[in-house]
Write a structure and sequence with these properties.
mainly beta, Porin, eight-stranded antiparallel β-barrel, three-stranded antiparallel β-sheet, 9% helix
Amino acid sequence: MRKLKFTSVLLLFLALGLNLKAQDNDYAAGQWYFGPHLSFNSGFRTGNNDFGGYVMGINAGAYFGYSFTDLLGFNAGVLYGNDGFFFSKSEYIKVPALLMFQFSSKHLGLGLQYNHSITKLDEADFVDYNESYLSAIIEFGYFPQIPYYAGGDIIYLPSKFRALIRVGYALTPKTYTILGELPYGEGAVRKPNTDQEFNPIFFEFGIQYNIGQHFNNKKATRKKTRRR
């Protein structure tokens, strides 16, 4: 059921992006894009026992990017992520880096994201653990166009915000060695330690504000498209 909900949201997001009347080319060669990033993420832990299940979280930080051509660019960022704040909390410094394929005001990004854990777990329960991991990510985003009515014409102006959806899958797993349980009773022998691992999958929905628009060439960034 949860996977069905995520699929429905993803399809709706894509449909909105593809149906935008965005003939204004917001991506242009030589332009910089940078500013704050805010997003909500949810996903699944693909492990077993107590380490599997559903997690939710938020991300905040900054991003920057550059367009080599009208069609090709890159995007990267540094984010603080608080995953699982409704249940067990895990804090991360996340560093995504993507190659961007740009189509008018939309883009498709492919890349990697390193998730560095800054959370300390209860060492009494673990012999060893590693919560840092590397994810492969794919991203779809667009600059929404704002309709403005002037003299019977509709003018579409570029938005200052970029909306995006990002999907990631861990290429390297989280790993845990859990201290064996000690049964009650005199002379009880501690059970063997157990090893567990899982590969997180996440869905991220966010917005980015493009401060770079104030420094780019105005002729390139403020084209207007009219329709009757």
